[in-house]
Amino acid sequence: MDVSGQIKQLSYLGNYPQWNLFWSQPRMQCEVYALCGAFGICSQSGLPLCNCLTAFEPTSESDWNQSDFSSGCVRKTDLQCGRIAEKPDFLMITVKSLPPNNSTEAGSAGECRTTCLNSCSCNAYSFVDNQCLVWDGDLLNLSEDNDSGKTIFVKVASKDLPHHKKTNWVTVGAVVGFVGEQSEGSRSKYFPGLVANVLIDGTDILSVLDSRLNREACVEQVTKICKVACWCIQDEEERRPTMSLVERILEGVLDVDMPPIPQICQYNYL
């Protein structure tokens, strides 16, 4: 075993004066227990291998500079629980698997969020299969997976969340307004279904706009709005984003993935 935390078996190639790795356990370095420490996240394809979550910083800068990540990360701003202060917020991350947790009763994703928000000991939550999962201790073994991973919400100070350039809300308002009018005014096509199909087919996204806009809108912005709209009408309630999450997506603080097609769109689009 070496500093990577993996047990490795190597063979010496006589013709080529070098050692060749042919077996290691765990196979992937991100699978090494607590490799990145508390609140650190591992990316098998990234360099460095470990990074602190947004709103966190290395516990020991000197250790991290030497590629020793085991000391983990701490919040940039301590949470002022029980005091009159700004309420904390949640950072959404997608990980390969969820760490060990405790479960608590909650009827919805919103109730689960409130439960964690009101608990001084809660560090994170996730709402999976109609079950509220909460984490009171440090988060360990976080491994990045943006494609098919599990979503977890980590409690952080609001001021430490990234604040990117804000979306042009005038344009967003106009797009949403005209989309709403078209949805009401034309029953020949079920509009959410039309939006969903345009997203899947990759066809002209500006075709969903009202003609009065004269196609004067940012393609990226309209695509983002349409994706958010499809997330908001998901069949399973826990998949639907909260309004604060929607706001942060439209502001550009968070990215939004392609949503699954809701059944209501599959059945009603003509």
UniProtKB/TrEMBL annotation:
Pfam families, per the entry: PAN_2, S_locus_glycop
PROSITE patterns: PAN
Annotated protein name in UniProt: Apple domain-containing protein
Top-rank lineage group of the source organism: Eukaryota
Domain Apple, residue spans: 81-157
Membrane-spanning ranges: none
Keywords: Disulfide bond, Signal
Example of a GO biological process term: recognition of pollen
Record has Disulfide bond as a keyword: yes
Native organism: Lactuca saligna
Gene3D superfamilies reported for this sequence: Transferase(Phosphotransferase) domain 1
Signal peptide: none
